[in-house]
Amino acid sequence: MIFAGSWLISQFDWLLYVFGAFLLFTGVKMALAKEDESGIGDKPLVRWIRSHLRMTDKIESERFFTRKNGVLFATPLLLVLILVELSDVIFAVDSIPAIFAVTTDPFIVLTSNLFAILGLRAMYFLLAGVAERFSMLKYGLSVILVFIGVKMLIVDFYHIPVAISLGVVGGILAVTLLINAWVNRQHDKQRKLPE
To answer: Which residues cross the membrane (predicted)?
Structure first.
């Protein structure tokens, strides 16, 4: 996908505008999206996968498939694998246009995405444990996506240097973390108040 994107951009410069509009749309959608309280089993994709695979209700040790009465069944572990791999694809679809805003060198794009995926997988449990403490992070990330999208859309009119782009992204993250710390402190104070 990375090499295809790199080739397409080298052949059709206007695709940077498509990628920029995609990032702009994603950033706005992320900022406006409401929290979804429904369980994973209620998601259309999960329902679709379950309707097309014979699946057991419980995990059978470390197996993706199991046999019951001679019939092959998928286990929920296969569903988890499918969802994790689809998440990787979605992450790539979102991050590849963003990296093309910085460079069109396919080697840098590929290695940066590989390291990002490996890092996210390795740090998943750490991030999952503290995710609820960073409730404002989604807004900061949405602003970053909008910034990168706008940067890609105005590339022919004004080139924002890489150092300034990194400073803006770092500044947005820093402000987001400061706001998040303040919000967490306010929530902690409210919890400590006697009723």
So the answer is: 14-33, 71-101, 107-127, 139-158, 164-183
